[in-house]
Amino acid sequence: MRQTKVHNLIILDESGSMSGIKSLVMKGFNKTISTIKEEQQNYPEQQHTISIISFNGFGKKMLHFCDPVTSVDFIDEKRYIPDASTPLYDAIGFAVNKLKLVLNQEESYHVLVTILTDGEENASTEYSALAIRQLIGQLSESNWNFTYIGTDHDVTKAAENIAIKHSISFDKNTNGIEIMFQKDRESRKSIYRKIFDKFSSSDKHHSDYEGS
Fold it and tell me: What CATH number corresponds to the domain at position 42?
């Protein structure tokens, strides 16, 4: 069976302001990981990987990078410790470029990038808004899908400022966070389904060609 790789890159804000919703974020985040694992079983022709990069003013943590879904663990209080500032652009630039470098050696793939933050950029030193906008704009023309999820700021404007068309805003409470993660999971399922339809159509084309 032909396979296509689906890379799930999650960039997770670990700044101090996330501490108030830490447990809710971990719970919803882990449900998302479970959803990706389930969808891998639903679509065996899709080979899913998960990359999780968390960030704050102290640096970036690579919890997973291009790991098969079977080897990805849930995050817990030992791995997710909100503190410090929000160098959002640096985290996006680091994570996206690192994955982009790996994909230079691949042919058939799709990428879902999810950015989750509760505040705007305030501490980057390596990447500017313009640099991130150009990077995302370029990749969005191929098989890269970007979603910006945020609260406590103008989420739509923040997403558009870096060329992200799909955004989800949420209320910073139990119900709001549960709804947000549910929207994200449904969006993922929809994209996985579209990848399946596209891949199946391509497979049929190859079969028809080989049989002609």
Answer: 3.40.50
